[in-house]
Amino acid sequence: MISVRRAAAALTAAAAVLSTAATGTASAAPSPSASAAALPPGLYGKSDPTYDGVWRQSLAFLAQRATGYQPADQAVDWLLGQQCADGSFASYRADTTKPCDAQTMRDSNATAVALQALGAVRREAADPTKIDTAVKSGYGWLRGVQNKDGGWSYTPGGPSDANSTSIVVSALAASGVKPGSYTSAEGRTPYDALLALALPCAEEEGPGAFAYQPDKEGELAANADATAAATLAGLGKGITAVKATPPQAPTCVDLSEPTVERAALNGASYLAKALVQTGHLTTPPLPGATDTEPKPDFGNTADAVVALAAAGTARLAEPALQWLEQNAAPWAKESGPAAYAQLILAARAMEADPREFGKVDLVEALNATGPAPKTPDTSAASTEDEDDDSFLGFDVWWIIGIGMVVGVGIGFLLSGRKK
Known about the structure:
Blueprint: H1 2-22, H2 53-66, H3 73-81, H4 108-121, H5 128-144, H6 162-175, H7 190-195, H8 224-234, H9 260-276, E1 281-283, E2 295-297, H10 298-310, H11 318-327, H12 329-335, H13 337-349, H14 362-367, H15 378-383
Antiparallel strand pairs: 1-2
Helix pairs in contact: 2-4, 2-13, 4-5, 4-6, 6-8, 8-9, 8-10, 9-10, 10-11, 10-13, 12-13
């Protein structure tokens, strides 16, 4: 779940802060949190936004645009106001009157998804030029913290991981930039980083899957969350992807010269097999939990549905979508905007009606979590996809020429999706 991943990220960041403090190194702290009773106007959801404010706002925007709605200007202004002067986003900034400094925990995942969301709402926004400026600045920051291997980490200088790299690829693809052309100073692409995290089909445990990161011994372990994200990225698609045609059977094939497209299809094969037994993915219990049984993972199941649909294997995702329809409503109600958005995008990818998702109107439920959106554009809802939502109001190739200009004094980042 999104909220669980955010909580895990907070614990990881806190541990890092304590470690660096013990050695006398300057450490960073998350932005001050806001109580549910003091949430700013324009923000979606009622829970504490400290670790997912920008993430849930951005997913809400993407799901609303996918169903023909335009977020309220107030909501768009809130997201724009979260951006730091260097173009990055933190997970949440409670006090935007104070400029970001070295202590601000910038979040590569939040930055990438915010840029994609802003690009999606640009066309009908009150001030498209302001959005263009924000997006250019954001991609400049991402360019500046790209790792030598072509990927991204949650913190500048940290090892690349599949989730962070994939969400940046998603945003690039939606913007109209070819991710394979987005090279590091050493000439490596995001796809190079993802291929380094792909398990071969000959692997006994998790054939075809992607790992989140190598472990301390450099070994790769299959990770369903990372696989769903990297499958979409390898296909050059993102979280708003739709069903691909013609349909194909998922197979796992090791090539003598691996390609990211083949690795993505191998990832789809792994996901299809992972969903066979129960129709959904599971998550292990949290450390210290008394109940040691794995729990259903609604969020990653929804992501897997989108990945399978995008890979042309939607037929094998149908049982998982049906399981979500029957079981995900309580989870979404508890988790809020990001969860509703994930379910909407999964339904849309499978050409299902998110307004009749089991017994829930997902669109109405999502819209109720924030400012009332503008009147829906039904023609847009039926035709838009991630390419249509790209922010083509400026020269996207401007991004490619940006040098490594950001990277000094940007502080530590806090991930929004870290395991």
